[in-house]
Design a protein that fits this description.
Blueprint lengths: L2 H10 L20 H9 L3 E3 L2 H11 L6 E3 L2
Parallel strand pairs: 1-2
Length: about 70
C-alpha cells in the first residue's frame, strides 16, 4: 500500500483521525492535491479564521462538510 491508500483506509475506519493541513500563505495554487483531498474528506475542519478558510476553499474549489473556529 502506498501512503495515499493507507491514509484513505484511516479515513474509512471507525477511529477518529486528526489531520493537520497547512495552506500556503503566498500562492494559494501551491496547495497540494493531497491537502485538497483531505479537506474535502474531513467531517469537520477547525480553522483559525473561518472566513479566511471559506474564501480559500472557494478559490480552490474545495467542497467541505463543516468548518468551525478554533483559535
Amino acid at each position: 500500500e502506498n501512503n495515499m491508500q493507507k491514509d484513505q483506509n484511516n479515513l474509512n475506519s471507525n477511529q477518529g483521525t486528526i489531520y493537520s493541513v497547512a495552506l500556503p500563505i503566498g500562492n494559494i495554487q501551491d496547495t497540494s492535491e493531497r491537502a485538497r483531498k483531505y479537506l474535502e474528506q474531513c467531517d469537520l475542519i477547525a480553522a483559525e479564521d473561518t472566513r479566511v478558510f471559506q474564501q480559500l476553499a472557494k478559490e480552490l474549489q474545495i467542497k467541505y462538510k463543516k468548518v468551525i473556529s478554533y483559535h
